[in-house]
Task: inverse folding
């Protein structure tokens, strides 16, 4: 009873409900069609539908029936092979009709291609291929017919006179009423606002999601009157030109006022001898009145720029992070750029820790610059309440710009640890060298200090970052990466107990026991 009620009311439903009913019909056919186990219930056949959306929904529901119900699969395929959307189209051939035909052809073609892909040995493969070629041929013939037709004469609607508009029943394009700009500085919002509706102009479009704005804007642009759009663009252009002229005029007036201020040092005194006393009195009064009206340019004095406000911790950290990101962008550029051959020094000469970080502009130079910014620049500024080593010492203080550089270096190396292993080795050598220099300086300061309770604080970084970098790429090593691991262990300055323990943990994987043994040896 439910099924029959749905089938009776299906034609009176709106399109979205009809598509759901098509899915319901597909389930009814699948249930009441004999499958591997015979079912005594009757078969329900799909009605012929004319709407493109319903046809597409019906075609999309046929693929499961062809796959699961072999008894009616050939009957469904034969019905699809007899379906040609172009035969059911009646003129006029509007763009909507063409889109509907294309969508039905595409859905039918996709259905048959899916069937042939799932079953390449299907007995109807030849017929399905011929059907697809016929669909393509009908589309080509339609294009050829359209190209052979004589095009309509192009007449400019904006250039018609009044009498011709009356004969052609052409509508006069409406004149767009452009409101004047408000006084004062003009914002971009005011520049592009052409409506006088307060509620419309005060609506915040940012509240709408971008997808919804695109769905609304694209259909609206298709129905916009070209004359109205041209008037709106011209209005915005005229506003922009007016604002530009006013700004240029103000700038020129300011320059003239500055030049007048510079020329006031030279004022020759001219006192004619043959002027009457009355005339002198009138001239003095007029000069006094003019002086009162003119601005006092001489009394302005020298102009000094105000001092900038001091940066807070968050602002300074943000500026530092942006600087680090720019340096890393230079590293990426140096990786893609060709190697520099303009250096006069021997390439085989290794300057070690005494090399200049900015001697060349290749990737190694930028890496050395970054590592020394992270290690040597904050030396002596990382004091904490406790003398610690490794992770505990790092956790007891705030994150600084040097820690940001270290974190960025760590992620950069792990993105391609096989190709960037030399960067990690250079970085760890700098960390170890800086730790030893700081420990030596702290020992000297402790020996020279008169107070026995005060001990200098040293923040050490090598152990923490060496083990963390090893933990980062160790899970991705296989038996073929023995050269990578041996090179890392050979070129880092110190092998600590945590590093040895992590290498020994490779033996837990039977496939990497040989890698562990060779690395330890």
Result:
């Amino acid at each position: 009873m439910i099924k029959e009620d749905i089938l009776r009311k299906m034609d009176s439903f709106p399109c979205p409900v009809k598509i759901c009913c098509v899915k319901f019909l597909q389930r009814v056919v699948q249930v009441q069609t004999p499958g591997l186990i015979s079912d005594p219930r009757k078969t329900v056949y799909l009605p012929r539908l004319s709407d493109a959306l319903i046809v597409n929904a019906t075609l999309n529901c046929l693929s499961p029936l062809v796959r699961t119900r072999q008894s009616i699969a050939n009957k469904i395929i034969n019905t699809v092979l007899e379906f040609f959307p172009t035969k059911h189209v009646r003129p006029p051939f509007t763009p909507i009709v063409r889109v509907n035909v294309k969508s039905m052809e595409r859905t039918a073609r996709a259905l048959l291609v899916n069937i042939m892909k799932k079953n390449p040995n299907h007995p109807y493969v030849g017929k399905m291929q011929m059907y697809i070629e016929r669909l393509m041929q009908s589309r080509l013939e339609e294009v050829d017919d359209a190209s052979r037709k004589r095009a309509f004469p192009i007449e400019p609607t904006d250039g018609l006179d009044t009498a011709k508009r009356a004969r052609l029943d052409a509508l006069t394009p409406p004149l767009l009423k452009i409101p004047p700009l408000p006084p004062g500085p003009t914002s971009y919002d005011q520049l592009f606002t052409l409506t006088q509706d307060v509620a419309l102009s005060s609506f915040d479009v940012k509240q709408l999601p971008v997808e919804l704005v695109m769905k609304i804007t694209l259909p609206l642009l298709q129905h916009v009157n070209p004359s109205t759009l041209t008037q709106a663009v011209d209005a915005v252009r005229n506003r922009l030109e007016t604002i530009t002229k006013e700004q240029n005029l103000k700038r020129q007036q300011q320059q003239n006022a500055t030049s007048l201020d510079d020329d006031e040092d030279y004022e020759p005194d001219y006192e004619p001898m043959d002027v009457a006393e009355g005339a002198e009195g009138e001239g003095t009064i007029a000069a006094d009145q003019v002086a009162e009206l003119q601005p006092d340019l001489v009394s302005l004095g020298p102009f000094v720029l105000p001092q900038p406000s001091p940066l807070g911790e968050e602002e300074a950290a943000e500026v530092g992070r942006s600087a680090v990101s720019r340096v890393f962008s230079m590293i990426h550029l140096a990786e893609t750029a060709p190697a520099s051959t303009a250096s006069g020094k021997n390439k085989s000469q290794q300057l070690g820790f005494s090399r200049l970080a900015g001697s060349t502009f290749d990737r190694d130079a930028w890496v050395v610059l970054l590592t020394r910014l992270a290690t040597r620049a904050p030396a002596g500024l990382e004091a904490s309440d406790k003398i610690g080593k490794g992770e505990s010492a790092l956790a007891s203080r705030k994150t600084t710009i040097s820690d940001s550089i270290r974190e960025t270096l760590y992620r950069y190396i792990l993105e391609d640890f096989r190709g960037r292993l030399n960067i990690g080795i250079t970085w760890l050598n700098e960390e170890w060298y800086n730790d030893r220099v700081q420990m030596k300086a702290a020992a000297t300061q402790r020996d020279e200090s008169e107070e026995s309770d005060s001990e200098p604080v040293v923040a050490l970084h090598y152990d923490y970052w060496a083990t963390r970098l090893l933990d980062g790429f160790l899970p991705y090593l296989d038996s073929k990466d023995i050269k990578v691991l041996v090179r890392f262990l050979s070129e880092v300055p110190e092998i600590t107990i945590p590093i040895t323990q992590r290498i020994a943990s490779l033996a837990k994987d039977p496939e990497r026991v040989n890698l562990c043994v060779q690395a330890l040896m």
